[in-house]
Design brief:
The protein is α/β, with parallel strands linked by helices. The chain has ten helices and twelve strands. The chain is globular and about 40 Å long.
Length: 333
């Protein structure tokens, strides 16, 4: 049996190779009517299995698809695990700060604007690649996290799950002014009220089960109040018709992690409260199987690679073992 040291060194080398693959994204044109006037990029690993999972990634304000891809490390994770990635990118003509317009009903509701453009990107990937329609997920940070909440509510028939990073619940705002008020004056609504906002977002006849949801939020976030992590939990546990009492309540690497199960014992929501972290995502640069991402203006080394742990909750990544402490492609297979 090879030593753990051998596997760790091998994975470190593999990550260097993987980073070369993930350096660039492919621009995709003609993915539909694109009513939201967004740009589409995709990342296709060197080896993709039939019926691969698909992850849609939404950047935050002032970011680009490429910069957020590097921060999150999603391309490296996709290369290792064999799933497809789509990045939607905002145009400054839509928003001068290049934020997704999560607060606008025209862009957040099913069938319209930016939300419709993102849904069309999923359909384009299904047309061009072998995608498992039951394993399509969406994630984003800040404005991208807020838009993630909208997409999960508006398209529960498209997305099996999502991860909301430093985001705000669906229907906190319906215009720009309300959006600003949501950020500076957190709304405290009942779980039933939040849940109704999700249920009303998509016709019942068009949805099956609701998506499972991960929430990541820094306790020192100075842009989006951390109180919204609790409001998001209440929204999605109510949607899944379960209570707001965690079935798992633990400290994980110095941070709070809570998991909520439905009546059948299936995990349907989880919340990571990143102790002392500001506005952004949590990363954990390194060669290990659950390590990745890079530090940046809105990416903080908190010992938890949020991309990996979100994907783990979605059940689209493998886990390290004693024999194989990393999860790179070759030589770890």
């Amino acid at each position: 049996m090879k030593s753990s040291f051998f596997w760790t060194v091998s994975c470190a080398l593999a990550l260097v190779v993987s980073s070369a693959f993930s350096a660039g994204l492919q621009s995709v044109q003609g993915f539909g009517t694109n009513p939201g006037n967004l740009r589409m990029y995709k990342y296709v690993p060197a080896k993709v299995p039939e019926n691969a999972p698909l992850v849609v990634v939404l950047h935050g304000c002032t970011q680009t698809a490429e910069s957020y891809a590097k921060d999150t490390g999603f391309n490296d994770l996709a290369e290792r695990e064999g799933f497809l990635v789509v990045y939607a990118e905002q145009d400054s003509k839509n928003n001068e700060y290049e934020c997704f317009n999560w607060f606008s009903s025209d862009d957040a509701d099913r069938g319209g604007g930016e939300a419709a453009s993102i849904a069309q990107m999923v359909e384009k990937m299904k047309a061009d690649h072998s995608v498992d329609a039951t394993k399509v997920f969406v994630t984003g940070v800040s404005a991208g996290g807020c838009m993630t909440a909208n997409m999960l509510a508006a398209y529960p028939d498209v997305f099996a799950g999502g991860a909301i990073m430093a985001g705000i619940p669906r229907q906190c705002a319906t215009n720009a002014m309300e959006g600003m008020m949501c950020m500076f004056m957190p709304k405290d609504r009942s779980p039933q009220e939040w849940g109704n906002d999700v249920r009303d977002a998509s016709p019942r006849s068009e949805q099956g089960s609701y998506p499972i949801v991960s929430v990541f939020h820094g306790t020192a976030d100075d842009k989006v109040p951390v109180a919204y992590a609790g409001e998001l939990m209440e929204q999605w546990t109510n949607v899944h018709q379960t209570d707001a009492t965690p079935d798992i309540d633990e400290k994980f690497r110095g941070h709070s992690h809570r998991v909520y199960n439905d009546a059948g014992g299936k995990p349907i929501a989880e919340v990571y409260l990143l102790n002392g972290m500001g506005h952004g995502i949590s990363v954990d640069p390194g060669p290990g199987g659950d390590e990745g991402g890079q530090e940046g203006e809105y990416a903080f080394n908190e010992g938890i690679w949020s991309s990996y742990y979100a994907a783990k909750f979605w059940r689209i990544v493998s886990e390290p073992t004693e024999e194989h402490p990393c999860m790179c492609p070759c030589p770890c297979e």
